[in-house]
Write a structure and sequence with these properties.
- It is a single chain.
- By secondary structure, the chain is an alpha/beta fold.
- It has one domain (3-223): 3-Layer(aba) Sandwich (Uracil-DNA Glycosylase, subunit E), CATH 3.40.470.10.
- Helix content is 40%, strand content 17%.
- A hairpin with a 2-residue loop joins strand 6 (112-115) and strand 7 (118-121).
- Helix 3 (82-94) packs across helix 8.
- The chain is globular and about 40 Å long.
- The N and C termini lie far apart (56 Å).
Amino acid sequence: MKTIERGRATVQDEAESAAPFLPERRSLRSLRQASLACRGCHLYKRATQTVFGEGRLRSRLVLVGEMPGDREDRAGRPFVGPAGRVLDEALAAAGIARSETYITNAVKHFKWEPRGKWRLHKTPNRGEVRACRPWLDAELALIEPRVLVALGATAAQALLGPDFRLTRERGRFVQSPLAPFVTATTHPSAILRRITDDERHEEMRLLVEDLQRVARVLRDESAA
């Protein structure tokens, strides 16, 4: 059975987990640097690079998406492609400055399948999400957000369990040990996949409404 040596840790490659690759001394900088060498699951083999989270330490708001897309994989930064532009627009409409948030993904490597000259997004499975969870847990432990927002069903189930249903619970704050206020909303990429302008406008309206609720919580927290 093949093993991977990483410092004092040894991990069997059949038991996929990023845990052995995390540094002993934790800071966002050390985590980001260590993540570049992560071999905790097989997704690194086809990705260009690790795409770690980005934002301020101690940000009161953390946004968690599913995984980087093609543009993010090439740039090495989260939410810089078309979905990122939708998110920026929605945050601005809700009165939230992206510069005041920390943005990351449940999975740090791009999973894709070829379609002609294109690399098409492929949803990560539970094993891949579980393997990458140590990075997300470490980010949240350092930042200690007051509000945590899952963007999309994959991120919501990664954070809140496989029984969580976005269609039923979106926009509602739920109890979780991860943060005082935890909620889930649609992923911005879902808006881009809508066929008609009316459908896209409606989905955008709902996303902005969900983020406005988050903004109100942040304002109330500041005033308390």
